[in-house]
Amino acid sequence: MKLKRQRILFSLIVLVWAVVMLYFYVSGRIDKYLAPGFRDFTLYGGLGLAVMGLFVGLTAGDEASCGHDHSEGDPHDHEASEMHPVTSMAFMLLPLLFAVCNTKDGFSVEALSRKALFDAPLDSKTFITGDLPPLTLEEIQRTHRKNEQGFYEFNLMELFFAVGDPELQKIIDGMSVETEGRLVMERENNESGKRRRLYRLFITCCAADARAVPIILDFGDQEIPQLEENAWVKVSGKLTFPIERGTTQVILQTATCEAKDAPWEENFMRNQ
Amino acid sequence: MSGESQQDFAYAFLSILFEGAPFILLGTLISGFIDIYMPPGMMDRFLPKNKTLAVIVAGLMGAIFPVCECAVVPVIRRLVRKGLPVSCALTYMLAAPIVNPITALSTWKAFSGPMVMWQGETVSAQWLMTSGRLGLGLVVAILLGLVVARMPMVWILRKRLVDEINGVSTASKKKASKKQHVHTAECSHQGCGHDHSHEHDSSAGSSRLVAAFRSAIKDFVDVGVYFSIGVVITALFNTGIAPGAAWLDGLASRDVIAPAALMVLAFILSLCSTSDAFIAATLDKFTYGAKLAFLVFGPMLDLKLIFLYQTVMRRKFIFWMALGLFVSIGAAAVAFQWVINQSSNLP
Description:
The complex is a heterodimer of chains A (about 270) and B (about 350).
Chain A: H1 3-26, H2 36-58, H3 85-102, H4 109-113, H5 137-143, E1 152-153, H6 156-161, H7 166-172, E2 176-185, E3 195-203, E4 211-218, E5 231-240, E6 243-244, E7 247-248, E8 251-259, E9 268-269
Helix pairs in contact in A: 1-2, 1-3
Chain B: H1 3-37, H2 42-46, H3 51-60, H4 69-81, H5 86-95, H6 101-110, E1 115-118, E2 121-124, H7 125-148, H8 153-156, H9 159-177, H10 197-203, H11 205-238, H12 245-251, H13 257-269, H14 276-280, H15 288-300, H16 303-309, H17 315-345
Antiparallel strand pairs in B: 1-2
Helix pairs in contact in B: 1-4, 1-11, 3-5, 3-7, 4-5, 4-16, 5-7, 6-7, 7-15, 11-16, 13-15, 15-17
């Protein structure tokens, strides 16, 4: 292939990457893919690729010199590509365009089941060791807002990791709490069909490394609202820590459950 | 693939691509500008003449030029073409993603909190893991560099790259032997058969800038092809990886098997070295030794890097390098955990 055509083809490939990256950034969809610290890199990367693609495309026919020796016996070539440019284009654009056409900005429940959605809670304090309030009921009440119905507002991460802190468990066991997350059917120990799982994702860098942070909702005698799988809900109820399947579980004996809009930041992020 | 699987693949694929593409762009821009603006052999002048010292200095260069593992491959490919000894280039390639301030900071932050017994003293896990990671990464990279320094280049690099380097070398010698150079107006860039660098120097600025961008975009596409293939495979594994999670947990407390298991996991996950510490910190069932193996092996070798490395190195060499890294890092991680275990048992 002639060099001029190769340059134009390469600039087109790069421009497609740039457009995709900039579109996801400008549309705000990038928030569902990357942790905040990485989002601006998508903007810079998209802009950089756009500049490079346009520059090379617009100067494709210009004479240019590398400014150093290309004399006989020196075969080095600044533009000889590893493979045919059309093959490169296929490898770089087909998966990208396939992904852009098929993504729904989230994982299916099946994929989430591979990301710990239905696992037993972690016996760990890794994420919140430094953030935990002092372990007195007064401190917990002071640091958590109480809603009009008398439920303390907790974020789901706190409830999830309470499993790893027996002292905290002891204090908040039986407490009336409110939290929010996405609702899916509970798979195990749910013969009555009255249990659901409430989760949010924790993303350290990108969605591929996401991990589900779930608790169990038990509706008991309550009516379960008819909602789509993965709907965002606000729930309130009494917090319990029974031992099931050989481990301590976080179960909210749910009193209320209502649909709500997704929060501005759907996933828990590193350093959030 | 079912509709849901396509959706999952697409989501994972895009997230990894968005995370990695800016760093590849950075690497290829640096690479493109090195290609055009850095004279052949210039790197040599910065390195000590002594081979061992040169390899050590190359290992430490990551602290000055922080580059992640995606970005480092195009950079070293260009540096090798520019005359940087292969041993120094490989040492830099392996060390730079680990021995750099961004990686150190992320490791430090990820392990803040827990305390560990070490030699009878209680020390912060962030100290232990950050120093352990940077130290082991540097030592392994330097050792590999010293081994490579005793190997012929044709065993290591792709034939095309070797041909190009030999070509540059031959041309440099010819250039050096030319005491007089009569220059005529007919000289032009294409195939004049002699040195005309001064001609282009006078045309300066924009012409070289165009050449630099052309070189950069070519590198971006070359690396981007392998990166895309790597991300496709990683996304496929990523969305289906957890069926082995229970099996992995079963290995977590075994001193020898656990580091091996986490190195395999690091290989499959292909995480960026600037952020993998946050994943390692969540693998709470695993020993610190296993986490160290994860943090050192991952930036040196993973699924996407295998594809990127093939733009520079022969497959046979990559295989032996991978085996060497796996064994040496695994052994060091086991020893690291042994010391922790001994410290915990001290009265």
